[in-house]
Here is the input.
Amino acid sequence: MTDVHFQRMKDLPSTHLLGAGTAMCAGCGGLEMIKEVYDVLGENTVFVNAAGCMTLLSVYPFTPFRGSWLYTAMASSPAGAQGVRDALDILKANGRMTEEEDLEVVVLSGDGSASGMGLSATSGAIDRGLDFIYLCYDNEGYGNTGQQTSPESPHGARTATDAVGPGNIGYKKDLFSIWVANKPAYAATVVGAEPLDLARKIEKAHELEGPRLILSLAPCPTGWGYDPAHTVEIGRLAVKTGVWPLKEYVDGKVVHTRHPGKRTPVEAYLETQDRFRHLFEPVRNDKVIAEIQARVDAYWAEVDVDDGTKA
Amino acid sequence: MTRALITGNAAAAWGGRLARMDYVPAFPITPQTEIIETIAKWTERGDIATRMVMYESEHSMITGAGAAAATGVRVFTATSSQGLLYGMEMLYTVAGWRAPFVLVNVSRGLASPITLEPDHNDIMAARDSGFLQIHCATCQEVVDSVLMAYRLGEDHRVRLPVIVNLDGFYLSFTREAVDLPSADAAAEFLPAFDPQGTEFRAGKPVSQAVAVLGGGTYSYFRYEQHLAAQAALPVYDEVAAEFNDRFGRLHPAIESYRAEDAEMVFVMMGSFATKAKDAVDRLREAGIAAGLLRPRLFRPFPRDAFRSALVGKKGVAVIDQNLSMGMGGVLHSELASALYGAPDAPRALTSFVGGLGGRDIAPAEFYEMAHATLRAAETGETPPPRLMYTHSELREMRKLQAAAHVERHEQDIA
Amino acid sequence: MYRIRFHGRGGQGMKTASRVLGSAFFHEGFEVQDAPRYGAERRGAPMNAYVRADRAPIYERGIILRPDLVIVADDTLVPIPAAGVLQGLDNRSVLLIDSATPEDEWRKRTNIGGPILVLPLPDTVDRSSLAMIGIACAGAAARLIGVISEDALEQAVRDELAPLGEAVVEKNIQAAMAGYAAMSDHAGTVSEGVPAAASGAGSPDWVDVPVEEVRLSGPAIHAGATSVEVRTGLWRTFRPVIHYDRCNHCNWVCSSFCPDNAISVAEDGRPVIDYDHCKGCMICVVQCPPHAIESVLEVEAAAAERRGSA
Here is the structure.
């Protein structure tokens, strides 16, 4: 592997590839992440999109991508990536296409597809060792339809389908571990609010071959209920509180790229968002807040504070 | 050219082989599995330079097929029944990508109840998907139709995927003598796939299958697909004529058997239509001028060809091996629509449903359909649609019901 | 039939406003249709909502092409053709704008023949709350139409906002009544439109869509970054303004975090905001290390720009 180019913030690009003018909400954390990822991957990419918020990135005749794009469906974007990758390999192998014409194949999917309907297709792609990047913007709900509860909605969060009671009674699915259990070429969590960490991971992923997961928390002002100006703050708080661990799986090990020695209490993160407001008003729900904290604590109890590895 | 005794499934695989398929996304399902096993054996032995990849579902398989075609390789794939329906979302989706490939469907009845035996409800469910459809009646037609399907779908005036349909068991597992074109002759008939500049390459951005907003934009793209499908009618005739020139076998959009001078005509699709040919011969011997029209092309629907072939006939009996719940036979409805308002249209257009779940159609049933249709033409009174089902079948059904303990108790009856 | 169109931006409460008016008509015994109309765009993007009301069953559906009353809750939308504010207005259609700009000025700018009214709202209405302006607009519309009583209007506000609690309901009733009162001199200005006659409707101008090659007729885009042609800057109600005297040319923060790639860094290291595309999320304002970016009300910034260029 070549040296990492992104050592300091100043190494991040000051011009960006992704075109402006998309239909995403103002302050979209998912779009912020995609913009950062695209700067590193470059335009020699084909994004294979699963139905979700980002379907509306490309609406005829407008696309923000300087490279290519294929819309598939909600359940089968990894299969679309398989078809594109296999076809490119066939064309290269029999001399109908040059190496220079090749593309990095990137699935773009929301959490609803990634951890729900599309999981079967992801499973198949991993089984086949597909050479692709799976880029998931996790906004913790079916965002494009108005933030209904998805497999990635966190415990206690109110959504459009858990709107008036205690919030989601389920727990966020651990998609990272599902991937890691199957020994992919690479897996990492990122967030747009930590662009340097993100750039290093995307660069690393780009240089590897095989199934690679980039799982990004995507703070969503519309679905989570906060002022769009606070997307970066909330992303950072997710990291500082340990709610969203930044980590990577490479060479058979999970290593945390940030391991906050002194974590901020989770309520600092929860109270920024309307979806958790009911845990604080009109009366504070200490039981649920404590449970959320305890789960985060239990996670980090298994992380070695010195080298960031996980037991 | 070699002559071989092969199954319909093997014929389908040979069609792909002779078409120099680059890529085969695959998933097993009875009665189609033999196709992908045959191809797998060829690729493993190095007989063909094809890459076959097992997907984890038909939904994914059809996605991968469309995506690979959109990237510029020649794709062959196959499925059946429940598999076709599991992939149904993607049939509609990839047809809109306008990236041609060939999907072989081995027809099998649909659940519920689940069955392995054939009928056409699976393929009828794909009727409005945007895939063109060619229906085969013999193993020879299967191999020929796969080759023709690539020429048709890849034509720049068409650019749509094509389903080649064959009946489970009656063709899939049945061996018949088949003339296999030589590889060179096939290559002369079917040149290399030209993706026409819509494929994904570095330096040539294409955003494919993007969302649209507004009915005007949507209507345009959808209607263009329809126009492309309609354009396939004359293109099909060209392809069939050229195929005939090269290989001496004519596969017209509608096969006509003794129909030109017939008074009554059977209309049906698929392998059971050869039974109708037999019935036509026997009826002719009995002094009844019967004939058969068998559409090979179902999408696009050869409406004008049907009209000109059927005007002036006394009666037409449509035999549907499918059932649209609450309506009846699909082919009957389509033919009624095609003939409506035609000057000198047949006086009687009768509807018969048979062959569901592989149920046989007996010669006596063909004869009765002919008589009933001619009676209707005489009297002007068309009988209601008829399911071919006999007293003995119902008696057998009653025995099964008894064994299943579904008999009614005395108190229920009171 | 009354045909009323509300224009605002996603998130400004136009759907609620149209529903309040719809419910008010309903309480007066009318047959009603009300619906919001969205595109793919999100919060801040122009949207509209409509209400139809009639004593007889309503057979029309979908967007209102010939409105009797158009209500504009955000006057920055008027000059935007894509917002369609002025679409279908004729000499009897009433245009009601919530604006600081006077009526004569709007007549000059829009060049329409029908009545134009600017909604004067008392200070009791919280103008910083866009939803409150929407409700006031619904109240004003009720009075302009002239067949809706205060009781029906109040009940309609209760119907639509009850889940938000009594305090919110009371505040909104006040806003609705303020709008209602503000239009007392113009009660009944809006009249019911008559249906267009079948005779003389003209040809629908149908065309036989030609068969076209797949490069044209497939839903594919054959170029990169065409999205820059979409002016998402129109979504903005506030704009970030960089005070270059305070900018320390850090090079990356505002530009890195802007989700929309609307901040580029010039060769001299100065960040430059692309107002054609900035949606006004204000992430840059919050993130700028030396606090060199300020959030300014879009209308004021635009006015300052006009003064600057004049």
Remarks:
- Chain B has a mean pLDDT of 96.
- Residues 256-394 of chain B form a domain with the Rossmann fold fold (CATH 3.40.50.920).
